[in-house]
Amino acid sequence: MKFSENWLRSHVPTQATREELAATLTAIGLEVEEVTALGEGLANVVVARIVDCARHPEADRLQVCQVDAGQGELLQIVCGAPNARPGLRAPLAMVGANVGGIAIKAAKLRGVESNGMLCSAKELGVDADASGLLELPADAPIGAAIADYLCLPDASIEIKLTPNRADCFSVRGIAFDVAAACGSDVVAFDATPMPALTDRTLAVELNAGADAPRYCGRVIEGVNAAAATPVWMAERLRRSGVRPVSLLVDITQYVMLELGQPMHAFDRNLLMGPVGVRRSKRGETVKLLDGRDAALDDDFLVITDADRVVALAGVMGGFDTRVTDATTNVFLEAAHFAPSAIIGRGRKLGLHTDASHRFERGVDPELPRQAIEVATRLVVELAGGTPGPVTETELPEHLLRPAAILLRRARIARVLGIEIADADVERILRALGMQVVGVADGWNVVAPSRRFDIAIEEDLIEELARIHGYDRIPTTLPGGATRIASPSETRVEASTARRQMAAREFIETVNYAFVDGTLLQQWGLTEGAVPLANPLSAELGVMRTALLPGLVSALQRNAARQAGRVRLFEIGNVFSSAAEHGAAPQETLRVAAAACGDAVAEQWGQPARRIDFHDLKGDLESLATLAGATLSFQPSTAGYGHPGRSADVHRDGRRIGWIGQLHPRLARLLGLDTDVVAFEVDLGPLSERSLPRATEQSRYPSVRRDLAFVVADTVPWAALAETVKHAAGPLLRDVQVFDRYVGQGVESGQKSLAMGLILQDNSRTLTDRDVEQVVSAVVSAIDAGHGARIRG
Predict the structure, then answer these.
(1) Which region among 16-30, 74-88, 389-403, 707-721 has the lowest average model confidence (pLDDT)?
(2) Which of 470, 472, 473 has the alpha carbon at shortest distance from 27?
């Protein structure tokens, strides 16, 4: 919200300096982002009129102007502005003035005397426009001080508002907060009803229920829409970040900035009537003020004229019924629209307007009538015209009425830790526009209708703290015992997994939980995707179903910027639509990693080697080790995985994720020119662990038997190990593979795997017969299950 300092002071007189005012606004929660001083030091700058212009004899781009500054005789001024012309009224810095740090003196420019300087808006410090002289209205009084004429000096103040403070999207809304903080009073506002001088009306029909419970309109006939916007209004608009357009449009903008009520002006002669408010119908279109044709669905709130759509309610007016300089009869509109009916509608069409910004956050439902009266007075005073009666149509059952809230003295002290005097409590609340009635243990307070953020007792206490001053609340340490919740030993904390990944040279990333739907299509991960009803952008329109698409995109951006060795990981939730219609999406916490480039950082101790499946498998197994888990791997059929170089990850027979190299086709689609290995697993089942329990260690020696089997190359070691464990029985303590051989002596398509069996019993020393029985059972099981034979 940007506004003029002088405009604010006209609503709330205060002796605070500009710096004190800015500091006060920030202290009460209206954070000041920028203060731009305007028109400082304009002594000896006056309104002047150019009487005559002649070309400079020595310079084609300069003119020698004869200027009337109200001193009786003309002044000769050399000027280079392209818009300098006879009859133009513009600011003149007289000799002795100091403008923009330049002391104005009588001088000769290319041999011609010049006794002053005609000024642009930028040179005066009131605007950034330096394209030519600041053109003043034809009725600007010659010789008048420009500071008085333009209401200078002034400042443009921009504040950053939180979404709950919609009431401060107006100068008057801010004035109540300033009055409360500075101990002053807000000036009474004149909204006296303008009497109707004709009986001209336009019927209004409300057919949108709670979305549009109040609508005010007024016909004004015989206006001069081509009249110029007065300087005081145009300057207030400019200093609030709004460019003046035309008188009728400027009046509606002015009322919106002053009161907070968006308005619209229709050309009455282009309306057939009656005016209505309803939901749009799929397939309807409307041409908007900016010239674009908007195609509507059934989710918009529209203004209609004899059921013809003429405007998007709360967003933008229509092109076909707009006011122009030729307008003679105008229909003013001021309505209350529910925030839920406006939120996101503008963004659907790529629009963001001042009106939608306010309606989305909530506008005072009591403002429409007041805004109509204020706008009517301005139109009649500045453009003439004859007003008709105000047509006010409302649905009382859908208008919210503020309820009384009990504010207790004891609760104030309990929440803030300090006591605030009763007189200060009442002063603050009344200054904020609230109705306050004392009761035995406190007050009954009714918030003004503009304060949508006041609903419970704590909201009122927050207002007291904000205005009383957070800096006046002493800092104290909390007392009493605190409960410390010890982490469960049956689960590995996510923070522990993070430290483990960081220790293995991975860098953590945090990606958006929403992604581009096209990206999920490229990965083949669209099943169960949850679309967003109100996305930030088209590229962030779907909740992610997996971590890898976003993580690999981050890796690709790093690789594209010459990062040769990239190792990234992320821990976060993924989302899928629930089985039951209307239920919340299901969330699953996962850990994912992606890497490319060399397996180890560049060094002299070992030759460079590209990272592969087994490197990342070791990283994943290090995570599993934290929970004492053993993982198994089975060939994967995932479409984004490289055939033969990817696997599904299992724990205790349950699939918990995927690991492997990305499919070359997907890598090309993503713009990757290097091999990428990655994994993604559910963190929940990966983190489960049993409580550690002490067990008796055997006093008897262990026995080791080494066996070598020739087996098909397609049989994974994990399958053989599982078979060995089942066949060996309780005497098996461990099984380890220590050699893999292919080549001479082993048939093509076969491999030789050598394993060591560690056998031991807790009650006795094993005999040769015990060992041979176990070995025989293992050999038979492997032969039967995998067609393997003992290597001779």
Answers:
(1) 707-721
(2) 470
CB 783 within 8 A of CB 770: no
Residues 6+ apart with CB under 8 A from 47: 70, 89, 90, 91, 92, 136, 140, 141, 142, 143, 144, 146, 149
Provide the residue range defining the domain that includes 438.
405-472
**DSSP H or E stretch at residue 137:** none
Q: Does position 792 have pLDDT exceeding 70, yes or no? A: no
669 and 742 in a single domain? The answer is no
Q: Tell the residue number behind the tokens 């599982």, with chain if given.
A: 722
Chain centroid to Cα 24, Å, comes to: 26
What's the pTM value of the predicted model, to 2 decimals? 0.69
Copy the structure tokens of residue 766.
Answer: 């094993």
Same domain, 530 and 435: no
List pLDDT tens digits, range 601-633.
888 888 888 999 999 999 999 999 999 888 888
CB 750 within 8 A of CB 675: no
Taking only the tens place, the pLDDT of each residue in 408-429 is 999 999 999 899 999 999 999 9
Q: Could you write out the DSSP letters of every residue in 88-108?
A: -EEEEE-TT-EETTEE---EE
Supply the DSSP string of 694-720, one letter for each residue: --PPPSS--EEEEEEEEEETTS-HHHH
Rounded distance, CA 97 to CA 41, Å?
Answer: 9
Residue 663 placed within a domain = yes
Between CA 566 and CA 574, with CA 568 as vertex, the angle to 5 degrees is 145
Look up tokens 């674009």; give the residue. Answer: 292
Amino acid sitting at position 28? I
Task: Identify the band that residue 581 occupies on the pLDDT scale cut at 50, 70 and 90.
Answer: low
Task: Please give the Cα distance from 666 to 689 (Å, whole number).
Answer: 36
In the chain, how many domains are there?
A: 6
With the CA atoms of 453, 457, 460 and 461 taken in that order, what torsion angle do they form, in degrees rounded to the nearest 10?
A: -130
Same-domain check for residues 523 and 567: yes
> What is the pLDDT at residue 755?
93
Contacts of 224 (CB under 8 A, 6+ apart): 383, 384, 385
Model confidence at 579, pLDDT cuts 50, 70, 90, reads: low
What element of type H or E holds 258? helix 247-259
DSSP 470: G
Domain identity same for 663 and 533: yes
- What is the distance between the alpha carbons of residues 12 and 630, in angstroms, rounded to a whole number? 72
Percent of the chain scoring above 70 in pLDDT: 99
Q: What is the pLDDT of residues 189-213, one digit of tens each?
A: 888 899 999 999 999 999 999 999 9
Residue 524: what are its φ and ψ, rounded to 5°?
70, 35
Using the structure block, give the residue that is written with the tokens 């195609």: 295
Same domain, 215 and 112: no
Residue type, 252: T
- Spatial separation of the C-alpha atoms in residues 605 and 610, rounded to whole Å: 16
pLDDT in tens, 244-282: 999 999 999 999 999 999 999 999 999 998 999 999 999
* Pair 288, 305 in one domain: yes
Residue whose structure tokens are 């229709």: 266
